[in-house]
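Sample pair:
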Amino acid sequence: MPVVGRLKIAAVLLACGLLPGCAAGAEPALGRFQTAFVGSLDTVVRLTAYCTDSAEFDRAAELVKAELEQADRLFNRYRADSELSRVNAGAGKGPVRTEPALADAVDACRAWQARTPAVNVAMGGVLSLWHTAREAGAPPADEAVAEAMRHVSMDAVLVTRDGDGAAVELADPAMSLDLGCVAKGLAAQTVADKLKESGLDRFLLDCGTSTLVCAGSPPGREGWTVAVSNPDASLNLSGAEKPPASLGQITAEDICIATSGDYQKYFVKDGIPYTHILDAATGLPASYVRAVTVLAPDAGTADFYSTALYAQPYEQARRLAEETPGLEALWVFEDGSTAATSGFVLEAVE
């Protein structure tokens, strides 16, 4: 079975309910600590960690809050003073000096997008239309979507660097960037790296139930055991009677997990559900599958590919997943059936 981190797969789709794990060898005694808070990037954050005492955990929790606030200041396009908002406001006006971390994120997205056209972070204008539509409860006009789709070329996104500084230029004055498909993943990975640097090596970081970093394992267990949510439990499209809350479970050690699904953010108009994830080819909500869960060595990669595999036909997505080293994935279809790459084995909750 392909190895992703040190993963024992037992499920799919992330809901982040923790279940009892499997016993392993004896481990040093550590205390289990948990906290949850509404963090930046419009995300409910849950941190579970094994620490020597509450003081160590409190320091870890404060680090998480501080790093996520920094990520919000970088990537939140709906925050007027964010670095991304400054870049978008400067579209068509030349290079905008910005923090290197934002330039790094844009470069990372460009590299990922070179492998698949299913995600495009230059579709900020289109995504903004659908964000407004979700709040209004009605889809945007076809003409508005078509016009916004004329301004989505990554060729017009220019990144330059000068010593320790960086600048991002949007050459098309009608375009904007939206890093929502990777922001939580990039932020979660930065947080996880900082936690490990501080000496914490057994923790589960859950950002909004869609992005998860599983570091180490609980003492005496083989990994973190996470319940996997069933899309029908939130938005029943299969017609199943009393759909269960979860599809299975996954036991994971030193791995990152991301899920994209139509049930996470959506609105319904005239009986038709419209998801927040768009098909980059059309500018319309993607509807190929119900959900995709991805396992990857880092959270940014997991976040990007969960969106990419969701926003294209299953056959193409399957090929992409199988051709991407270190990636495993599971798809959930409208009738409730599932399919997975060879290293992703779904098991029932015990």
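Residues 1-27 have pLDDT under 50 and may be disordered.
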